[in-house]
Design a protein that fits this description.
Layout lengths: L7 E10 L7 E7 L10 E2 L2 E3 L2 H8 L5 H18 L10 H9 L4 H4 L11 E6 L10 E9 L14 E8 H9 L7 H10 L5 H10 L4 E2 L2 E5 L2 E5 L10 E3 L7
Parallel strand pairs: 1-6, 5-8
Antiparallel strand pairs: 1-2, 1-4, 2-3, 2-7, 5-6, 9-10, 10-11
Helix pairs in contact: 1-2, 5-6
Cofactor: Mg(2+); Mn(2+)
GO molecular function: hydrolase activity, acting on acid anhydrides, in phosphorus-containing anhydrides; metal ion binding
InterPro entries: NUDIX_hydrolase-like_dom_sf, NUDIX_hydrolase_dom, NUDT19
Length: 247
Amino acid sequence: MPEDLTPIPAATLVVFRERGDGPPELLMLERSAAMRFAGGAVVFPGGRVDAGDRAFAATHPGDPDDLAARVAAVRETIEEAGVAIGVDLPDLPAARRALYDDTPFGEVIAGAAFDPAALVPFARWLPHQGVAHRIFDTRFYLARWRDGAPDPAVDGNENSQLFWSSARATLAAADAGKVRMIFPTRRNLERLALFNSFEDAVADARAHPIDTITPWIEVRDGVDHLCIPEGLGYPVTAQPLGAALRA
């Protein structure tokens, strides 16, 4: 397989902030327009698994691929949004700068306990090879934002803005043309819009298998649709291909 088509392990984190008067809000980022992948689109924080993530995972028990992905999700969320999940860092801004300087995760959190159980597996997406110049094998995790934690702050590099919004409100913004949204983000927000609490989302995640989702094209009523499997918790499993943004 050509190197540029080899799937790149990646991870993303859906961070919930509970509200007393409505559905939970999710932390969303808008990618800088100049970014090659999903430029200008709203996404959850996340990115590729790097060598430091794998090195840290290798020193801990459990599935090394899953643990490396959890580390990547946490590291990327610190870098992109200044939010630390599953680890208490006495100087979060300094940790963020160190990660940006490519200091390995294990060195940055030295002396602090890391709790991978703070992340709950939710989904795994792997686009069909040939639809993009790079293919990401992305694991999605759920986590709860800790009350009293420092407010998120955009990195100003890969992302142009961040915001808290319910899944339904973000979908409505996309329908109104206010934000751009790639196909996996939309399908996951539609699923997340079903939940009225973090606990509801966790229960649903545990009730469905984490099968790798690879969308395919299928003709329905004479129109090409981009489709995903039934039975994995997604309320919408097909979208006309012409309306689907595929990064």
